[in-house]
Write a structure and sequence with these properties.
By secondary structure, the chain is mostly helical. Helix content is about 75%, strand content about 0%. The chain has one domain. α3 packs antiparallel against α4.
Length: about 260
């Protein structure tokens, strides 16, 4: 922690540089971080709730499915961004790693802070839209920081593990891209879990992202506090994946520079 604090300027400037680089040469510049998530939220809400008139089982509210799918897409996006950026962070920063001496674990910290910044902007816009349409969930939003923290720990453990392995086995990135698509559809994001056959419900519960996603959805749709027992899989797998990532990183750290 002491080393990270000494390099806080490097970490924060890297986060700022990466954020600015995304829109540096665009005409609208800093407007895009606000415009893109706003457009996505409005489109999903209008298309699914008004045009397609999709409905959630047991809910007759015309906006419910739009809120449901926005909630799932936004929170899945945070998980996907962290894991994908961690997957390639050592290769993407190969020159930096060879030229500068700094704690290598600054890189995942930069990834986490950058993803959290992007998510905070998107979440803020989503909450503002909910206020405007009169669907702000209420006091249960106080549970969001805990859910986000659990999600980041889980994503970091997976991303770090894959990031180290990807240095030595470059096919990891391609395989994970396929696995991530499959994982998306195995998580109740665009469909409610209760529409699946009863025989599949226990298997769905084994997915660590299921309990997390349902906790988010419960907050935004029902102003419901998370079911803490349902979050146990992501707590356990998150801690285990971080432990595995730490072990792999320590054992391979010295060899990574030769491979990149």
């Amino acid at each position: 922690m002491g080393k990270w604090w000494l390099y806080r300027g490097f970490v924060l400037s890297s986060v700022k540089r990466d954020f600015q680089a995304r829109y540096r040469n665009s005409l609208l510049g800093p407007v895009w971080p606000l415009l893109q998530p706003l457009a996505m939220i409005v489109i999903y809400t209008l298309v699914f709730s008004q045009v397609m008139q999709a409905r959630l089982p047991g809910l007759h509210d015309g906006l419910a499915y739009g809120i449901y799918i926005c909630c799932g897409i936004l929170t899945w996006g945070l998980f996907a961004e962290v894991t994908n950026r961690c997957l390639s962070m050592f290769l993407d920063n190969a020159n930096l790693l060879k030229k500068l001496s700094f704690p290598r674990l600054c890189l995942p910290l930069i990834v986490l802070l950058g993803a959290l910044l992007n998510f905070a902007i998107t979440l803020g816009i989503f909450l503002l839209v909910l206020v405007i349409i009169g669907r702000f969930p209420g006091e249960s939003v106080l549970a969001l920081p805990l859910l986000i923290g659990l999600q980041l720990i889980f994503a970091l453990g997976i991303g770090m593990t894959l990031g180290v392995l990807n240095v030595f086995f470059r096919d990891i990135g391609q395989l994970f891209a396929i696995a991530l698509q499959l994982w998306f559809w195995l998580t109740p994001i665009v469909y409610p879990a209760n529409i699946l056959p009863a025989s599949l419900q226990p298997w769905l519960a084994l997915n660590p992202m299921t309990g997390l996603m349902q906790s988010y959805q419960g907050i935004f749709l029902h102003n419901a506090w998370p079911d803490w027992q349902a979050l146990l899989p992501i707590v356990v797998t998150g801690l285990l994946s971080c432990a595995v990532a730490a072990c792999i990183f320590r054992s391979k750290e010295a060899d990574m520079l030769d491979e990149i």
